[in-house]
Specification:
Distance between the termini: 88 Å
Strand order of the largest sheet: 1-2-3-6-5-4
CATH superfamily of the domain at 268-366: PDZ domain
Strand content: 35-45%
Largest sheet: 6 strands, antiparallel, barrel
Order of helices and strands: HHHEEEHEEEEEEEEEEHHEEHEHEEHEEE
CATH topology of the domain at 268-366: Pdz3 Domain
Radius of gyration: 27 Å
Shape: elongated
């Protein structure tokens, strides 16, 4: 009995000692001004200006920085509300506030409106959009803008970084819901359907924050309340949970000037019709056979007359495996790589002909499709 009492006392003492040590670690008794000390530790080697220090209040300070810049987007088709999504004000000028959202959020609309955090509903004008990028730009009178979001960067993004989203899942009832999580994956390549074809790849950030219908077009923020992405999609399956994806803010901003001016994004053309190297049966119907050891890449079915490909010497049956040392796995990857270039750029194409690897230089021409 006496032994048991001694054990209980030892455990209790250890618990109290552990709590005392935890108190020491948290409060830092070397500095009685714990709040200032926390700021010093957090910004010892960098400026603390405009930085948010995460403490026991969570990310509320970061949310406050951006909350009023986030809006709900209403898509009206005919006289009926067809769907809703999210967006955010990313800049203003003397007349207008400019809102970024997903192209699929506003597609098909004959009227668009924006709901602000003060519950005011404002008519919006779509300036431009691109379905491959899945980004659209809207504008509203600058007098209706409550706040402008700060644009951040994904350059220093790391796995496990704290992130949060703001959006309106499933409509007005849950307007401007905040969800948080971490960066679960960086530069994921996800195949998506454009024009009812699964032939386009997007490079996105993977997050575990809840993203639901209606969140599309809303911003993804870092812990400092800066926009680092545009929420676009999630994997939906009974066996999958917490896999959402966000378009990198750099990719969205790269073409924003063209969209603001209602210009189509000009993309280059290689100048071939093609099939995936894995489509051996279809290739056979075109009289094309490739070596059995080639399982990836794209096969030239025909060459467009006058195109860069025709001037480079590419021929029917050639298997393109790389562009500028970047591997071409299939047609979706080819488009992903190709659309990073501009009309007039020269690229090095690596291809296989009769089992021998060759290279050629192609000058990209304007895509007329």
């Amino acid at each position: 009995m006496r032994g048991k009492i001694i054990n209980i006392v030892v455990v209790l003492f250890a618990f109290l000692l552990g709590g005392g040590l935890m108190y020491v670690v948290i409060t830092n008794p070397l500095d009685s001004d714990t709040e200032n000390n926390a700021g010093l530790l957090g910004c010892q080697y960098t400026s603390c200006e405009n930085k948010v220090i995460i403490d026991d209040s969570g990310i509320s300070a970061a949310v406050d920085k951006v909350y009023d810049a986030v809006v709900m987007v209403k898509n009206y088709q005919g006289s009926q509300l067809s769907s809703t999504g999210s967006g955010f004000v990313y800049k203003i000028d003397d007349k207008y506030g400019y809102i970024m959202t997903n192209e699929h959020v506003v597609s098909g609309a004959n009227e668009l409106s924006i709901v602000m955090t003060n519950q005011k509903e404002v008519k919006a004008t779509k300036l431009g959009g691109d379905e491959y990028l899945d980004i659209a730009v809207l504008r509203i009178p600058v007098s209706d803008v409550l706040k402008v979001a700060s644009i951040g960067s994904t350059e220093d993004l790391k796995l496990g970084d704290t992130i949060f989203t703001i959006g309106s899942p499933v409509g007005e009832e849950y307007y401007n819901t905040v969800t948080s999580g971490i960066i679960s994956g960086i530069d994921r390549l996800v195949t998506v359907s454009v024009n009812s074809q699964s032939d386009w790849i997007m490079k996105v950030s993977q997050v575990d924050a809840a993203i639901n219908p209606g969140n599309s077009g809303g911003p993804l923020m870092n812990s400092n309340g800066e926009v680092i992405g545009v929420n676009s999609m999630k994997l939906v399956d009974d066996s999958i949970e917490g896999m959402g994806f966000s378009i990198k803010i750099e990719d969205a901003m790269a073409h924003v000037n063209e969209l603001e001016q209602a210009k189509e994004i000009e993309r280059p053309m290689l100048g071939i019709t093609l099939l995936n190297a894995s489509d051996t049966r279809v290739l056979a119907s075109y009289g094309i056979s490739i070596p059995s050891n080639i399982s990836s890449g794209v096969v030239v079915v025909s060459v467009v007359s006058g195109s860069g490909a025709s001037k480079s010497g590419l021929e029917k049956g050639d298997v393109i495996t790389k562009i500028d040392d970047e591997e071409v796995i299939n047609a979706a990857y080819l488009k992903y790589i190709l659309y990073k270039y501009k009309v007039g750029d020269k690229i090095t194409v690596t291809y296989s002909r009769d089992g021998k690897e060759k290279t050629t230089t192609v000058t990209l021409s304007k895509n007329t499709e």
